[in-house]
Amino acid sequence: MQLQGIFSIRFILGGLIFIGFIVFYWQSLSFERFVDTPINWPDKNQALVVEKGNGLNKLASQWYQQDVITSEFYLKLFAYLNPEFKQVKVGEYQIENGETPRTLLTKLKEGKVIQYAFTIVEGTNKWQLIDLLKEEPNLIFDLAEDSAEQIKQLNLDWSNIEGWFYPDTYYFSKGTSALELLKRANQKMREVLEQEWQNRAVGLPYKNPYEALIMASIVEKETGIPSERDMIAGVFIRRLEKRMRLQTDPTIIYGIGPDFNGDITFKDLRTPTPYNTYVIKGLPPTPIAMPGRAAIHAALNPADGSALYFVATGNGGHYFSDTLEEHNRAVRKYQLRK
């Protein structure tokens, strides 16, 4: 009887162990299927925003309540078994087709947030740049309105922010500070300007790299034709050396400011401003736009020659003249022919 009872107990225990093994095996398969089964994201066009304070446990509860995942427990178990997934990074994430709990937590762990692009185009001035920053919905605009405060925020050594942001495309995540983006653009401009300054031609009439930046901004605004940049820089360099006024229209436009209506009048030519190079001698006090590397290089490596004048031909290019008489003939031909 005792042996029969022991056999019965062993049989029951064996059955329970077998059932437990089956349950465990089934649960394991179910768990594995869960972590690699696409989630039920409600709107494929809507990004996932993880805000500060939203840990994995909170996210798991939210997603389960929203029917995004089928098991809150399994998601937390996956993170428990893989502790590196417990740390999720704040930001905005794109949910891809076929996104699974495993790939989603990997994305949150690595901080693979959505990247937006902001482009500063060569020749953009500070007013245009500030307007574009204000219009960018994914940036937080935190640049001061006061010029002196802007200088402090950006830690600049000069009295104006104009010209100090390198034209390029900058990538950022949602909620990035506009000031942070500008600091990146400023750092790149400093680096490029220093590189070009170290490789400048000899005998240039610049006291420092800032004056070269001013000249580069004028060259940038005068032509968009690559082959003309060093020629135009050469004209302006020779005019500076001869103490001739630069007489360049883009400086007049900049001196008028953001309210310029598109037409330069004879009155504008005669109206004194710090930027009117038809009136002042030498360079204007600051750059008039954001120059690219090519314009900076041209300003620091001007073309040799004897031309002192140039006039737009109407097809995007310019006609260069050595003398005032030749220049006046070119003006009559290209500008006054109508």
Automatic annotation (TrEMBL):
UniProt entry keywords in alphabetical sequence: Cell inner membrane, Cell membrane, Cell wall biogenesis/degradation, Lyase, Membrane, Transmembrane, Transmembrane helix
Gene Ontology CC terms: plasma membrane
Swiss-Prot/TrEMBL GO biological process terms: cell wall organization; peptidoglycan biosynthetic process
Molecular function terms from GO: lytic endotransglycosylase activity
Residues annotated as transmembrane: 7-26
InterPro entries hit by this protein: MLTG-like
Localization per Swiss-Prot or TrEMBL: Cell inner membrane
Chief place where the protein resides: membrane
Record CDD domains: MltG_like (cd08010)
Membrane topology: Single-pass membrane protein
Enzyme Commission (EC) number: 4.2.2.29
Site residues (Important for catalytic activity), renumbered to this chain: 222
Catalytic activity field: a peptidoglycan chain = a peptidoglycan chain with N-acetyl-1,6-anhydromuramyl-[peptide] at the reducing end + a peptidoglycan chain with N-acetylglucosamine at the non-reducing end
HAMAP family named in the record: MltG (MF_02065)
Function, in words: Functions as a peptidoglycan terminase that cleaves nascent peptidoglycan strands endolytically to terminate their elongation.
Family note: Belongs to the transglycosylase MltG family.
UniProt-listed NCBIfam families: endolytic transglycosylase MltG (TIGR00247)
Name this polypeptide is given: Endolytic murein transglycosylase
Organism for this UniProt entry: Aliikangiella marina
